[in-house]
Amino acid sequence: MKKFFVFLAAAAMIICLAGCDKGNTQVDGTQSQNAGAYEQLNEMFTRSYASITVDVTDTFDGFSLGSSYNLIYSGEKINVSYTVERLRKVSLDAPLSGDKTTLVGEVLIEGDKTTLLRGDDIGLSAASLSGGLVFKEEYFRDPNLTSMYLRSDVADPDAFFGKAGYRDMHVDATFMDFFYKIVITCTAPQGNGAEIVLTFGV
Amino acid sequence: MQKTLTKFLACSMAFPLTFGILLIGSARGAVAADAEDYYAPVTAEEGTALLGQLHDLITTTHRTYTRYADCKDPAIAQKTDPGPNGQLMEFYAHAELSSEWKSGASGTWNREHVWCQSLSNGLWGENGGGADLHHIRPTESRVNNARGNNKYGDFDSGNTVWYRDASDRQIAIAGYTKSGLFEPIDEAKGDVARIVLYVYTHYNTFENVYGTTNGSGQSYYFGTLKFTNVVSGKTEDDAIALLLDWHLSDPVDEIETTRNDAVYEIQGNRNPFIDHPEYVEKIWGEPVPDAAFHSAVVQIPADGDLSERLAALNRAISLYSGLTSSQRDVAAEDVERLRAAIDAYNDAVDAYNAQAEETERAALGAAGRRRGA
């Protein structure tokens, strides 16, 4: 009898997992509107990754600024190395030989404190790394969601992205058990175009 | 010195005229090339520094000082002042004049001190400035007398000075006189101005013109010369203004360049104000706004596309860096406008960098969810 209940419980768990897991998202690539699939994306997003690279390209008035942040996780420590482009200012002394300058540096964040800074200080802190993406069905418009990717316009950028003012947002995420890459294109609050690429390392 | 001159004269007179013309023609290219190198030591851009360097240059390269007697030699005159038909060019009338020397008889040529001997503070003698071929010009004798000791000046309703031939026929107008002044014809005013400027630059002793040496000349060749000695005007500035006006209204012509090359071969020095007319304004003129700089500044967009604004700013800044301090002073309004455009651009850069930073922070925040999970 006891064995029977154990078997029954195991069977129920398998059925439940099958229902909650990607089973609701069609493996053959067809769409799913299942809220569970989005919850699974949230779970996947919050898993432990060894590293995340954040590449941002900002475009405005014929200029394009690129920046790259490499976040490496080790327990409570996050090492952030970065290469950041900024426009240079003009002076009367001489014409600019190049319109951009590059800032390079590295910070180590332990808990809420920055314990190391090397190179150019761009004011990174633990607070800079709080936030996150939130996946909910209602945040997307006409999503194309499969077991391997989510491609969709974002209906509610503020809620999805966690920052106000961004618009015309589109997301293209690829995953399988873990996220591989999330590409977000949008218009920033001040009108500049932005492409944000999160690349996950496991 | 004398040996070189004698050799030159012998050659000029010995060769047939046609061959001599060919010789001069073929030599002119070499002379022009030499003239380019001649100014290599001049590094100053303007003002007294340029004046001083020109003084040093034309006195140190003045290897051969001719004598006043040399200035009446037809062979030299035909080389320095060639007119049509193998004759001479009358200086003030710019008309043909017989090359035959007849000791100043009417209708023949005489030696004109453009800077009058009596107005030279006693500097002009048988040598030095009073016998410098850049200075002494052939004029018809009665024209020479009419000019006399009159200063140069501009006026209305003066008496016409005619260049007449030996038969007293009127050949051409040579200038005008009135109340102690002599006004050349318009075509000769620039010639006069550039000679006066040369004489002033050369024969003022170096301390007067910011130079460092009087070159190979005898010390008594040099002294103090003021423009008001020979040009009408209450002040030096008045005289300079008249010379500038004449210099600009009558540009350098072939008569002057021909003479400059010929005298260069004899004396070794050149009249820099013929080769580089712009030196006159750079030394004595009011600074002139740089047109290209002005154009570049007014073309900077007040707003709009940032990359276009940067390109326009770079163009203007590049031109600004090439301006002299005087040009910057005179273009103060444009410089101020450029500064304002730079400030506006830099404000836009600050705003744009802030936008980029804000987006990057948003992206980092988006990636940071993991920490709080």
Label this structure with key terms.
heterodimer; A: 202 residues; alpha+beta; 3 helices; 10 strands; 17% helix; globular; disordered N terminus; B: 373 residues; 2 domains; 4-stranded mixed sheet; two-stranded antiparallel sheet; 10% strand; elongated
Short structural summary:
Chain A contains 3 helices and 10 strands.
Word description of this protein:
The complex is a heterodimer of chains A (202) and B (373). Chain A has a ten-stranded antiparallel sheet. Chain A has a domain of 67 residues. By secondary structure, chain A is an alpha+beta fold. Chain A is built from three helices and ten strands, in the order H-H-E-E-E-E-E-E-E-H-E-E-E. Chain B is an alpha+beta fold and 373 residues long. Chain B has two domains: 283 residues, no CATH class; 82 residues. Chain B has 16 helices and eight strands. Chain B has a four-stranded mixed sheet. In chain B, strands 1-2 form a two-stranded antiparallel ribbon. Chain B has a two-stranded antiparallel ribbon with strand order 3-4. In chain B, a hairpin with a 5-residue loop joins strand 6 and strand 7. Classes of the chains: A alpha+beta (202), B alpha+beta (373).
Ends apart, CA distance between termini of chain A: 44 Å
β content of chain B, as a range? Answer: 5-15%
What does the radius of gyration of chain A come to?
A: 21 Å
Q: Provide the number of structural domains of chain B.
A: 2
Order of helices and strands of chain B: HHHHEEEEHEEEEHHHHHHHHHHH
Given as residue ranges, the uncertain stretches of chain A (5+ residues, pLDDT < 50) are 1-32
Mean pLDDT score of chain A:
85
Spatial arrangement of strands, main beta sheet of chain A: 5-4-3-2-1-10-9-8-7-6
> Helical element count of chain B?
16
What distance separates the N and C termini of chain B?
100 Å
Greatest chain-chain interface? A-B, 53 and 43 residues
Mean pLDDT of chain B: 87
Helical fraction of chain A equals: 10-25%
What is the CA-atom radius of gyration of chain B, in angstroms? 29 Å
Oligomer: heterodimer
Report the count of strand segments of chain B. Answer: 8
Q: Main sheet of chain B?
A: 4 strands, mixed
Proportion in helices of chain B: 40-55%
Strand content of chain A: over 45%
Shape by Cα distribution of chain B: elongated
Class by helix and strand content of chain B? alpha+beta
